[in-house]
Amino acid sequence: MPSGESSGPGRGVEGRSLPAVVARVFGDLRLSLDGELVALSWPAEGMVWSIEEPGILRCWDVANGRQFYRLDITHDDLAWAISPDARLLASANDGLTLWDALSGHLLRSIPRVGWVTALGFRGDGRMLFAGTEDGRLVLVDVSEVNQYTLRRTQIVSVARRSLTAGAFSPDGKLLALACEDRSIYLWDTAQSKVVGTLQGHTTHMSGLQWSGTGRELFSAGWDSNVYAWDVGRKCISFLYNGHTDPVLALAITADGEWLASADRGGQICIWCVREKRLHSRCKGHVAPVTRLAFSQDGRQLVSGGEDRRLIVWDVLSGQRHGPAVEHLGEAKGLALRQNGRRLVVARVEGIQVWDTHRAELVFRRMHPGLSCCAFSGDGKWIATGDQCGVVRLWTSLATRPRAEWQAHKTAVSAVAFSPYGKMLASAGGTDGYVYVWSTESRKPALLMPEATEGSCIEALVFHPSQPWVIATGVHWLASQGNDGSTVVWDVVERRLVARLPTGGRRLAVRPDGKQLALATLNASVLLWNLETFDQDGEVCGHGEPVTGLAYTRRGDVLVTGSEDGTLRLWHAGSGELLAGHYLGTPIRDLTVASDPHTIYVANANLCCYEVDLRLWDGWDSLPDDLHY
Known about the structure:
Elements: E1 12-13, E2 16-17, E3 22-26, E4 37-44, E5 47-52, E6 56-61, E7 67-72, E8 79-82, E9 88-92, E10 96-100, E11 106-110, E12 116-121, E13 127-132, E14 136-141, E15 151-157, E16 163-168, E17 174-179, E18 183-188, E19 193-199, E20 205-210, E21 216-221, E22 226-230, E23 235-240, E24 247-252, E25 258-263, E26 267-272, E27 277-283, E28 289-294, E29 300-305, E30 311-314, E31 331-336, E32 342-347, E33 350-355, E34 360-366, E35 370-375, E36 381-386, E37 390-395, E38 403-406, E39 412-417, E40 423-428, E41 434-438, E42 444-448, E43 456-462, E44 468-474, E45 484-490, E46 495-500, E47 506-509, E48 515-519, E49 525-529, E50 535-539, E51 546-551, E52 557-562, E53 566-571, E54 577-582, E55 587-592, E56 598-603, E57 608-612
Antiparallel strand pairs: 1-2, 3-57, 4-5, 5-6, 6-7, 8-9, 9-10, 10-11, 12-13, 13-14, 14-15, 16-17, 17-18, 18-19, 20-21, 21-22, 22-23, 24-25, 25-26, 26-27, 28-29, 29-30, 31-32, 32-33, 33-34, 35-36, 36-37, 37-38, 39-40, 40-41, 41-42, 43-44, 44-45, 45-46, 47-48, 48-49, 49-50, 51-52, 52-53, 53-54, ...
């Protein structure tokens, strides 16, 4: 948790403790993660363990999807592993660290072993291996690890390039190591030498698994292939060819009967090893699947990846097992109807409309590839943009769009309505075009080609009283992250009003129209005077880029949310920090309600929080803007 932020104990939802300021949750927290999944294990019946960045361990009840245990180790290591008996955790960057899995206590560290790119335990949990980017192998005896002793077995050179994956044979005598030189090395742990090399993959290898007998080795690669190797003959015995995307994860049951592979497209294949055939395809993820684990009896499989949701599958049927959790992917945009009654969430795979009074989902529409959304001020229209460059105009509960424009050459990065909903602006992120559409005639009213001089357009906003549309863009390939520009266009006179020398990712205009807030890439927010177009000030304090930005209705307070998981209130005039709260999950977007104390926040954990400022410590000392 960032220093200086309060979190406070809150009530629990689905076994998870929420921050004290969260009044309600819109969405399902079951089997959802806050960070990137880095390890997954099924060590006991009915219990799945996951580790996500930055070192958060969760234990899940598979039957109901509820979290029943969480441990915040909060460590910046990128590689993690869970011992088979769930007794130990291992993490690594350029050194190795061992943790007690129940208490989270650091047991021992081995510094400076080299940058670790592969990490795992032996089947009995008594040996740990680490492969480094320079081809070295580290073997550590962890059978009697405590805070005083740790026996480093050996550090040896195996290859000249990075080791990307590894797996011990069932008897522990061989360690298979995948290398970036496209070879698999068989390391004899007793003789401390390579006793065989396997070659067949044409690109990076992401996973290795042994059969139950130890006679076969399975490998997965970015060439979309899964190979079975005859270890004795050192040759390929079978090609499991069921993927068209790079294969990122591999798992096998304890008895070796079932093999599972997962790819970048989110597809999971379950293979019958004995019959060497594809048994089923499992589709449910909306992003790359990076981790797989079978239950101890081999009847169930758990998967997880970049969409931050775990899914449990029945192996025999290939269907989802356990709680039915709706999964439309991460939030890409958040919009609130002016009267505050409807909350729109654009997700990767569709759109959701929530009744904020009853906290009920009143409308959903599956639509893969959504990238942004907006609600018109009069509440009549919802606009969405997608990855294919299509802008759509909907009424709030329509099953079909009322208008559809395919004008952008690239993904739509932002949409915004004019104050009374008569105009809609859309931006193509990398094509640099901004269109202004008439919602009445359904025709384009203005085209601004390369509106921000070659920058990727990140955000759009209309001025509340002037006929201006404001766009900001970033030169992502520039030497400095803020290189880009922000432009102000008059859509009636069709002219450029002003160009500001700084680009960013989020925009907000104060309700009186006198100030523009611009969130830059360096975690600060610049405040610009929209009468003189001079910079008024800057607010700094977040540890990561600001991803949510809005003024309260009277405009005295600026609300910011960040990838660092903090929500902060600033005085719009002086830039003084008024209050901050740590929400425990990266923030994707935010919007303020018509009342002075409610903020809606879209989170990385696939849910939206309703934050009630009256629950904050020091509420009475906050500006009058929040008390009317």
